[in-house]
Specification:
single chain, alpha/beta, Glutamine Phosphoribosylpyrophosphate, subunit 1, domain 1, Rossmann fold, six-stranded antiparallel sheet, five-stranded parallel sheet, 16 strands, about 15% strand, globular
Length: about 625
């Protein structure tokens, strides 16, 4: 931002107020009127709790400064290298290591050397530059905009809007992308002219009296696709047992690094494969019982707390389980627009926030098992594509399409009745939703089209003006299953999973860490042959085998459940009045963004039970709730 130090300080105060939940332990500002730069920071103190480690942090001469969100897990190693160069430190914080590393090596090289999650702004006074740098996968958010000759950035959109005093126009393409996939595809945001620094990238701003577009450039410090391709070129040659041992060692090292903290650390424990692996390795490297946190639900179809309790008992953790009702979950719904700032509709955001709220009462940092599905083949689409893509492509597309349309002719409730009569309940609910999903994708043309259909919530275009969603990027990597996994790692993981976890936890001032996303774990995962991940219709084989060395078989070999709140039933019941109000045709026509007739038809088909449009409607309702709160529409 440009302007006098006083003016910059005043404007930045509004942004800091909007970020209080992300940093309840302190507030700081730094400004240089000569450069026309101001930094502001809300602190969640994790490493070096003293005031000497407060941010923004500047060098003694005041010519370099940094504001940093996140943690550098290998900061002690980096510090030792800097000390060998003659650098001297006055704190024990990773922030000072980051600051002096950027001065010594430059911010791009520092990002390459750092292991951790981070989003930071670095001011290089002598070169009159400011850098905005984001970690490899985008674990930490970093929004920016070029506004009135200035570059403004923040960890959340609400802070960005507060600093600029300007609410940009809605980005219709981003809205179409959200409605298709439940999250706004990065680096876009719901606003025009507001972007995210891409994961693995650094934005360089040449500082001047007035910053133009030509003064802003982007550099990549890490490329997830390139890393996966290079890993495949140096494939792991050992047996499955060798792979289990290698993953065990590499992931244990990452878990150990991820526990660095001067505040209490715990772990989310759902009872599923990924969170159990992380918890088991965390307990392995700890000399005290690990604090683990689980939420249970009074609906047995979505409750996994008994599995989590059995895992906690087997591992010897100090377990906390809180049982919640459907109403406890529903009470979170009105908070979503404030929590996420832009439309975000992954239903598991609800339990994620609730378990974070439980954990925050006892710890300041929680480890999560996220990213195991993307790296080791855990989603149904990975398994399905491996087993069925080849056979299905040998069936004429017209025949497949006709069969799909026939399947859609029977209501989900009717298919559920068929399932109850002869089939057991699947891992993600009744038979009806699964048959309807298969019916909708049956007419795919190729792997790219299949992935698009599998990851799209709706085939309809609700945004007025015919704005289509951009199809997801699908890198070519060997088999369709591997391509799907890599597409998930660079898309779904970054756009959805990491956003969900960060916002849900930071809303209650809880820091989350994801050991699966260590670059060495990522590289090893992509070097493994596919048969070490997917075999016999089972995903994450290497992780299952790893768990089999520390847990009884019955706690490992069970179907993937996940959290699927009964939103479809809630929309016909306790949420019906809320939905009716948000989807009123007169309101939709006045807003002029969505096709009111198409929305109403979808809503009426769902209410009648003829079709299951839960996911489409949830996306529409989340958008309408956000629009009402943030735009006053």
């Amino acid at each position: 931002m440009q302007g006098s130090a006083e003016a910059l300080d005043h404007r930045i105060s509004a942004g800091l107020a909007a970020l209080r939940h992300r940093g309840p332990d302190g507030e700081g500002r730094w400004a240089d009127a000569g450069l026309g730069v101001a930094l502001g920071h809300r602190r969640l103190a994790i490493i070096d709790l003293s005031t000497h480690a407060a941010q923004p942090m500047a060098t003694e001469d005041g010519r370099h400064a940094v504001s940093f969100n996140g943690e550098i897990y290998n900061y002690r190693e980096l510090r030792a290298r800097l000390e060998q160069r003659g650098e001297r430190f006055t704190t024990s914080s990773d922030t000072e290591v980051l600051l002096l590393a950027c001065r010594a090596w430059g911010p791009v090289e520092t990002a390459r050397r750092a292991r951790g999650m981070f989003a930071f702004a670095y001011v290089d006074g002598p070169r009159r530059r400011m850098w905005l740098v984001r970690d490899r996968f985008g674990e930490k958010p970093l929004y920016w905009t070029h506004h009135e000759g200035s570059v403004v950035f923040a960890s959340e959109l609400k802070a960005l809007v507060a600093v600029t005093g300007h609410r940009p126009a809605l980005d219709h393409a981003a809205l179409a992308g959200f409605l298709a996939r439940s999250a706004v595809p990065q680096p876009a945001t719901i606003y025009e002219d507001v972007r995210q620094v891409p994961a693995g990238a650094a934005l360089c701003v040449e500082l001047g009296e007035r910053i133009g577009a030509e003064d802003i450039g982007l550099q990549v410090h890490w490329d997830a696709v390139g890393e996966a391709v290079r890993a495949r070129m140096e494939p792991f040659r050992g047996s499955l047992d060798d792979a289990v041992a290698a993953v065990h060692e590499r992931l244990r090292e990452s878990v150990h690094r991820s526990t660095v903290s001067d505040r209490p650390v715990g772990a989310f424990l759902s009872g599923g494969i990924d969170s159990t692996v992380v918890t088991a390795l965390m307990q392995e490297v700890s000399d005290q019982p690990v604090r683990t946190f689980t939420i249970g639900f009074d609906d047995p179809d979505v409750d996994e707390s008994s599995y989590a309790a059995a895992v906690a008992s087997a591992l010897g953790t100090k377990q906390t389980t809180v049982s919640l009702s459907a109403q406890d979950v529903l009470d979170v719904v009105p908070q979503l627009p404030t929590m996420y700032d832009e439309p975000f509709a992954d239903p598991s955001q609800l339990p994620t926030h609730l378990v974070a709220r439980v954990a925050q009462a006892d710890v300041t940092v929680a480890l999560s098992g996220d990213a195991g599905d993307e790296l080791f083949g855990g989603y149904n689409r990975h398994i399905t594509s491996q087993r069925l893509y080849g056979p299905l492509t040998r069936v004429p597309r017209g025949v497949r399409g006709a069969a799909g349309r026939a399947a859609l002719g029977l209501s989900p409730a009717a298919w559920d009745a068929v399932g109850r009569a002869g089939l057991r309940r699947g891992p993600t609910g009744g038979l009806g939703p699964r048959v309807h999903k298969l019916g909708a994708i049956a007419g795919f043309t190729d792997a790219r089209d299949l992935y698009d259909k599998l990851t799209s919530v709706t085939p309809r275009r609700y945004v007025l003006g015919g704005v289509p969603p951009q199809p997801p990027r699908l890198p070519s990597l060997g088999t369709p299953a591997e391509s799907f996994m890599l597409a998930d790692a660079i898309g779904y993981l970054t756009d959805d999973i990491l956003v969900k976890v960060d916002r849900a936890a930071m809303a209650v001032s809880l820091e989350t860490r994801i050991p699966m996303l260590d670059p060495s774990v990522y590289r090893l995962a992509w070097s493994l042959p596919l048969e070490h991940k997917l075999a016999g219709g089972v995903g994450k084989l290497v992780l299952r085998r790893l768990l089999g060395t520390v847990l009884p078989a019955e706690l490992v070999d069970r179907p993937k459940m996940g959290f699927g709140p009964p939103l479809g039933d809630w929309l016909r019941g306790p949420l019906r009045a809320w939905a009716d109000d948000l989807l009123t045709p007169a309101t939709l026509r006045r807003q002029g963004l969505l096709d009111a007739d198409a929305v109403r038809a979808t809503w009426e088909r769902h209410r009648s039970g003829r079709r299951d449009h839960t996911n489409e409607l949830w996306n529409l309702l989340v958008f309408q709730g956000w629009l009402t709160q943030w735009r006053g529409a």
